[in-house]
Amino acid sequence: MPKIAESVAPLQTHEQDGVERRAAERYPSQAEASCHSAVASNITPFPTRIQNVSTSGIALVLGRRFEPGTLLGINVADPATDYECALLAQVVRVVPYQDGQWLVGCAFTNQLGEEELKALRTEPANAIDADRRAWVRMSCDLRAVCRSGSDQPSGSWCVTVMDVSAGGVRLLSSRALEVGARLSVLLPATKERQARLVTTSVAWRQAEADGQWLLGCEFTPAAAGSR
Fold first, then answer.
1. Does the pTM of the predicted model rise above 0.90?
2. Same domain for 142 and 82?
3. Domain range holding 38?
4. FRET label pair with 78: which of 23, 123, 160, 227, CA 20 to 30 Å apart?
5. Angle at 28 between CA 25 and CA 33, to 5 degrees
6. pLDDT tens digits for 134-173?
7. For residues 31 and 59, what is the distance between their CA atoms, to the nearest angstrom?
8. Per-residue pLDDT reduced to its tens digit, 3-13
9. In DSSP terms, which residues pair with 172 in a beta bridge?
10. Residue 86 phi/psi, 5° resolution?
């Protein structure tokens, strides 16, 4: 039987939890799972793929949407690793994804242990991925230059880099881009490393109150050759 991940820390208020989830390092994952409403009397499991995971939250790719606030039971049974576990998380964000699917961001009710995190995460395949992970530790709120795949160089515009993980980057942009759009992002230089040009694909977008757009972008294979 799947085991429930051990409780480490209780879920906090939305404001506190949002700050801590942004601070927790996210790791890409390809683990297969199923999920269901934890409070429904008739449990109907829905297949899902874990896109990324941290000690405090998880992002799921689903064929249906769950409303924010929904408590989900997540059952992981990954045939690639023979790892099984059961998790409990609350939906905090739902955005359209590719091919009519939904990207569902959830906060764990109890912080994930290191053993569970290690089992769910995808290890970097090469030195390029390890190098990307180092960007997670650089300061946020940085200005970068962005260009869509259809733009000429003169069509570049400035974005704010909110955070970077091993699998992608989160940008604050004045332009609304469609999910699936290709972007080239020039990450700024720091004292530790030179500026880098990476290629990404928009995985989700969210309208902000000030008229800007929050873009969740995944690194694409072309990024491995970018400098």
1. no
2. no
3. 14-120
4. 23
5. 115
6. 444 344 567 889 888 765 555 789 998 887 777 788 888 9
7. 11
8. 333 332 334 44
9. 160, 214
10. -120, 130
Closest residue by Cα to residue 139 from 156, 160, 163, 117: 163
Same domain assignment for residues 35 and 51? yes
Q: Where are the alpha helices (DSSP H) in 6-141?
A: 14-23, 114-120, 127-134
Helices (H) then strands (E): counts for the chain: 3, 13
**Residue 55 φ then ψ, to 5°:** -65, -20
**How many angstroms separate the most distant Cα atoms in the chain?**
58
| DSSP strand pairing (102-108 vs 168-173) | unpaired
| Beta-carbon contacts of residue 179 (< 8 Å; ≥ 6 apart) | 96, 97, 98, 202, 203, 204, 205
What's the number of domains the chain is made of?
Answer: 2
Could you tell me if 131 and 100 lie in one domain? Answer: no
